[in-house]
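Objective 1.3, modelling of assemblies. Example input:
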Amino acid sequence: MSEAVKIVENRKIPSGATLIFGFPDVGLVGIIAGSHIVDELKLEEVAYVESSLLPPLVVLHDGLPHSSIRVFGDGDLLVVLSEVPVPVEVIYPIMDALIEWGKAKNAKLMISLGGIPIQDRQDAKELKAFAAASSSAALKIAEDKQIEILTEGYMVGTQAILLQRGANNGVPSITLLAQCFYNYPDPEAAAEVLKQLGKITGIKTDIAKLLEKGEEIRLRARDVMKRTQEEMSKMKKPQEMDIPIYVS
Amino acid sequence: MVDEYFSDLERWIERFEGVYTERPSWNLRESSIEPLREMSVTPREVLITVDLPFTSKDTVKIKAVGRSSLEITAKMNRTIRSVDLGIVHLKGVFEKYSSYLHVPVPVYMSKMTVKYKKGILEIRLPRKR
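Predicted structure (tokens):
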């Protein structure tokens, strides 16, 4: 792990856990879904990211400072949440540190939760979900649960790094993406991605409760969505919608 | 040399945008919140969408200001306290959304069409030829 990024552990970390990443991205799908898991399963903070590469920012909860990137966990589940978008300049060292840490903890599976934006999302009657993975064996995990595979295209952001590193370090890694708004917080897409996550991992959360809170989430998440838009623009996120030059 | 000039110009603009336009997205004095919105310009029209949770269609008001600006307001169907949104150092309530935007190309304001679905407002403005 680079000295510039440390994962500081508050508690004993379970070995062999499933490590889930919920980061701000299109539709804030990952952070909304990840936060819902943490709330529903009452996961406690077990570690956090400390790095001078990150902006000088803490998140205050009950008057006390917390890192903007924290790991919550219990038993065989670890969930990494970032309450602010990771600046594009430091996305590689942050993700590399978390992935190496997860590997050191013998994570059996790493999953990132996110979205895939569609035009006229407000007219969509139901949302589809897709998966991509770091290896054929990891892909099979999703295929066996009848999750459609994203066979071609570009991927930009934290999930791209997860898959890239997973392909090299041998830790099975999957990214789950639900159709969503590009620039608006999308709790319905988060609900869809949680349904697919449940099929793979058996993690059960009250999806109806998430949908009931939908408008509240959309209101509260506005500023995070605006900041995320800025970072997505810098990392050229719209490239995900480009037609690939080469199709296998 | 030309590329360098435009890169410098871009950086200059970014600095000014940071100084003059960074402000909270909420205004307690007016009890209003600035909603998220998107605008795209196509060859035929300008499409604007606005995310308006906790509203209903009948409370949305759209007003053309001059030939190239729109003022959009929408009353919320509930009052939200500042503390509910984590703004704990100031006391107040939010009751509406308010947004002012500039349309970057000439359009027919009088031919505006409006749709509202699940709290997403969609405005289409045909472009002038």
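Residues 5-236 of chain A form a domain with the Rossmann fold fold (CATH 3.40.50.10900).
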